[in-house]
Amino acid sequence: MQDFYSWLLKQDTRNDIVSNLVSDIKQDPNLPKGNHDIESLRKYLEYKGDHVTEALEEAWLEFGG
């Protein structure tokens, strides 16, 4: 089964808040490298604001987490 982070990165062609989140993640040079689970991503992204964590939560629900 595919992990959440790998699944998330493939959502970049959508036209919604999840694809915006993916764009932000791909452009963030400070994002810690490695296999990211939902908790590590949430902790890192929370400084970007509620809209970002809401997009992350939506993606997580769609992923089936």
Q: What's the order of the H and E elements? A: HHHH
Number of strands: 0
Proportion of residues in extended strands: under 5%
Largest sheet: none
Mean pLDDT: 89
Q: Roughly how much helix do the residues carry, as a percent range?
A: 55-70%
The number of helical runs is 4
Oligomer: single chain
Q: Low-confidence runs (pLDDT<50, min 5 residues)? A: none
Measure the end-to-end span.
12 Å
How many domains? The number is 1
Please state the structural category: mainly alpha
So what's the overall shape? globular
**What Rg do the Cα atoms give?**
11 Å
Write the layout of secondary structure elements.
Layout: H1 4-9, H2 17-27, H3 38-45, H4 50-63
Helix pairs in contact: 2-4, 3-4
Protein name: YozE SAM-like domain-containing protein
Domain YozE SAM-like: 4-63
Organism: Colwellia asteriadis
Highlighted features:
65 residues; mainly alpha; 4 helices; globular; YozE_SAM-like; YozE SAM-like domain-containing protein; YozE_SAM-like_sf
Protein model, in words:
The protein has helices spanning 4-9, 17-27, 38-45, 50-63. The radius of gyration is 11 Å and the shape is globular. It has one domain. Helix 2 crosses helix 4 and helix 3 runs antiparallel to helix 4. With 65 residues, it is mostly helical. The model has no long low-confidence stretch (mean pLDDT 89).
